[in-house]
Amino acid sequence: MAAPAVGKRVLDAGWLAARSTEVELTGVQLTTTHPPSAGPAPAAPWMPAAVPGTVLGTLLKNGLIPDPFYGLNNQAIIDIADAGREYYTFWFFTTFQCAPSGDQHVTLNFRGINYSAEMYLNGHKEVLPKGMFRRHTIDITDILHPDGNNLLAVLVHPPDHPGAIPPQGGQGGDHEIGKDVATQYVEGWDWMCPIRDRNTGIWDEVSISVTGPVNITDPHLVSTFHDNFKRSYLHCTLQLENKSSWIADCAVKIQVSTELEGNNICLVEHLQNYAIAVPPHSVIEYTIPPLFFYKPNLWWPNGMGKQSLYNVEIGVDVKGFGESDSWSHYFGFRKIESTIDGSTGGRIFKVNGEPVFIRGGNWILSDGLLRLTKKRYMTDIKFHADMNFNMLRCWGGGLAERTDFYHFCDVYGLMVWQEFWITGDVDGRGDPISNPNGPLDHGLFLLCARDTVKLLRNHASLALWVGGNEQVPPIDINRSLKNDLKLHPMFASQQSTKSQEQYLLQESTDPSKYLDGTRVYVEGSLWDGFANGKGGWTDGPYEIQYPESFFKDSFYKYGFNPEVGSVGVPVAATIRATMPPEGWIIPIFKKGIDGYIKEVPNPIWDYHKYIPYSKPGKVHDQIELYGHPKDLDDFCEKAQLVNYVQYRALLEGWTSFMWTKFTGVLIWKTQNPWTGLRGQFYDHLHDQTAGFYGCRCAAEPIHVQLNLDTYFIEVVNTTAEELLDVAVEISVWDLDGASPFYKVVDKIVVPPKKVQQIMEMKYSQMKDAKPMYFLLLKLFRLSDNGILSRNFYWLHLPGKDYKLLEQYRQKNVPLRIESEVSISGALHKVRVTIQNKSKKSVAESTRFVRAMDLSDGTSSYSTCNEATQERQEGGGLWRKIRGGLGVAKSGENLRRVEVNGTDSGVAFFLHFSVHTSEPSTSQEKYRDTRILPVHYSDNYFSLTPGEKMDIDISFEAPQGSTPRIVLRGWNHHLNHAMMI
Question: What is the pTM of this model?
Fold first, then answer.
C-alpha cells in the first residue's frame, strides 16, 4: 500500500452505531476479530450512524424514533432521566485505510465528543476524558495495521449529570446539567423542548492527520497597526513538535496571499522561510518574525466595508524528509476595541478605529440534533448578513460552535460575542437555585475554555469573550479567565502609537505569544456596559409591544441591551409541514371585560412555546387589529404583518437613539434550533418570516424612518462618511389609490454616525385624514435620483385600526412582471422585475423619484455580501436562459406577464415563494412543495402606483425538479407562477 500523503483526512462516512447494552462484544473484539458487518444494511443491532452528530440523530436517521421536532413527537421519545444513561450510551464504529511509512506519523483527532468515551483501534484502548468542548488528539502511528486496514470503535457516554425535566419544564430543567462542562439548553428552556439524549454523540469532526517527524500545532495569528492603519504587521507564534529521536533541521515557511477582486488570481504578498532546529522528542514554541504590510485590505463588519480575507499558509520542511506538516487559515486584518462609553454607559465596539452601532441577535445553535453542515451554516450566517445585522451573540447555554460557523461569520461580516458555558438559570440564579459554584470540575472547565480559545482565536469575526449568560463564572474560574484573556498592551485602547512601537520591538511580548490578548473579556452578559452593568436582571422584555413603545425614552434605560425579544409565528406552510392537522387550529381569542384579548393556543402550539400577539392588561392583540383571523392562512398572514411592524419598530426605535442613549441591541432571538413558535426571523426549515425583512429594512447603514412616537421623519447615517446633497420624498396613499399628501425635503446633510430629524409628519392631524393610510419614504441622491433607502408603512389614526384592509383584499391592482434566469448546475439565480401599473392620481407636474432598481447599484440592498456569496457559491460558465410569467413577449429574450386589473391602488404585502410542484390540498396528506432555503433581496414588500422594483432570488433546486416561483399578496391572489 502506498504511503499516505501528508495532510488531514476527514472520517465522515461509513460509520455504524449500536446501543451499548445490545452489543455483547468488547471494544477489543470489535476492532480485531469480530467487527460489525459493513454495507448498506448492517446486521442488528448495528445501524448507519450520523457522525458528526448525536445518538438521537442516528436513531432518527434509521427511523427508530419519530421526528422529535414534529408535533408532539418529542413526548413519545424516552428521556435519559427515565431510561438511564446506559440507554443513550452508544458504540460508533468505522474503518479506514492508512499505512504510514518511514518517518511518517499519524494522529487520530476528535474535535468534539459529548461527553466522554473510550476509543479502540485495532485492539488498543485509549480513554477520551470528559468535556464537550475539548479536542482529543491521539498518536496512533504504532497501532495502525501494517496492511493499512484499520478498525475503529468509540464507546460514547452521555453527560455525567443529564438531569431530569420537572413537570413544569423550566429553564434548564432541574439544572443538573450545569454540573458538567456541556451545553445546557438540552434540558429544555422557555423556547426549547428537552433533548432526550442531551446531545450525546461524536458531535464534531473526526479526522486523521499524517505528518512527517515534525508537526505544527495551534498557530496564533495577530495583526498590529500603526500610522492610522497604513502600516501593519502580521505576527505568528506556533508550536513545533519533533516526534523523532534525532534533531530535526527545519525550514518553516509562511505564505500570505489574497484573491484579486473579480479574478480567480491569487496575489502572494509574503513568502518567507526560516531555519530552526527542533530537539528530539520535544515541543518548542516558535515566533515567526513579524511580516510587514503596507495598507493591507482591512476586514470590516457587515455594512461598514468589505470582508477582506487573506489566506495564511504555514508549512514545515524537515531536512532529509521533505514536507512534514502544513496548516492554513483565512485571516482578516482588523483591530477590535471595546470599552464602556462614558456618556451612555453602554459598551462600545470599535473596528479599525470606527465605532460600530451594534444591531444583531442572539444565537443558540442551528439544530437541536446537531445536524450542522457547512451548507446549513452558510445559509444561517448569510441570512443574518442579509438582515443587515453586524453581531451574533453565541449564548452561554448553547455551543462553542463548529469552526465553519465562525468562517462564514468572517466571510459575511458578523462580529461574534462568544460566551463560555455558564447561565444564570442553571448556575446559581435559577429557580430553584442550584450549582452556585458552577460545574463540579473547575479545572475541566478551564481546560475546555483554553482549548476553545486556541481553536477560534484566528477568526476575524470573533470580537468578545464573555464569562456567562446573566451570571459570572465561579470566583476561581473568573479569575483565571481574566488572567488568561488579559489584553496585550498594544490592544489596550489607551495605548499610544509610540508605546506600541516599543512593544513591537520586544520579542518577549510579541502579541501572538498570548493565549489571545486581542479581545476584551467581560465576566457576564449583564456586567460592564451591558444592561445595568452590575448584573441586575435588566435585559428583556420578551413579548409583544406596541410599535411606538420602542421609540419612547422610557422603554429601556441602559446603553446596551443584550436581549430583547418578541413574537415569531412562521408562515402557514411551515405550521402544516411541522404539525399534524390538530396543530393547524389557531388560538382561541378570549376577550376579557377590560377589552384585552387572551390568546389560548392549541396543545401543540403550547408545546412549541408559542408567544401570543397580545399581553392582557398591557398590549391589545396586534393580530386582531387587522380583523379576527378566520383560519390558519389568515392568522399567519396577519401575523407576518405584525412581525414586520414589530421588528422594524424595535430596530428603528433603538437606532433613533443611536449614540445619544444607546450603543447597541441584540434581539432575542433570531432563529430556533427546532420548530419553535417564538423569537425567530426564519424557521427551522429555513423559510423567512416577514420580521426578517422588517429587520433588513430597519438596519440599513443609511436609512430613512418614521419615529412612531414623535412622528418626525428621521434620516440615519451609521457610516463614517457625511451624507451630502440628499433629499427625502414623502408620499401618503389612501386605499383608493389617491395620494393626498406629497412633499420633497431636499438639500439634506447628515453628519457621520448621526440621526437627523427632517420634518414632522402631520398628515394624521389634517381634517380630512383617512383613518387608515400608507406612507412611503424615499431617501435619494439629488445628483442622479439614486435611491439610498426606501421605507413603506401602513398606519392608522389614533384610536383606529387596520380592519379596512379586509375589504382591500378585493382590490384588483394591475401588475407587470418580467423575469430573467441564470442556471449553473443546481444553482438558480432569478431577477424578477415587478411594476404596479396603476395610474398615479397626483398632478403630472409632481416629481416622483424613480422606483428602486437593483440593477443600477443605487439601492442600499446592493452590498458587498452579494459578491461574497458568488465567491462562496462558485463560478463556472453561466447558461443564460430567460423565463417569464405569462404569454406576452417583449423583445427576443424577455418574457412578461400583464396582470390585468381595473383598480388603482397599492399592491400590498407581496411575497414570493419557490416550489417544486403544485401544493397539495389534502389536509390528511399535506405535502410541502417549497424549495428551501431561498435568498431574496427583498420580500413582503408593497408597490405604490407606478412603482417598479427588482427582486433577486437565488436557490438550489433539487435534482430532477422543475422549480416554480409563486407570487402572492394581500390583494394579489392569482398565484402567478414562473416555471424555470
Answer: 0.94
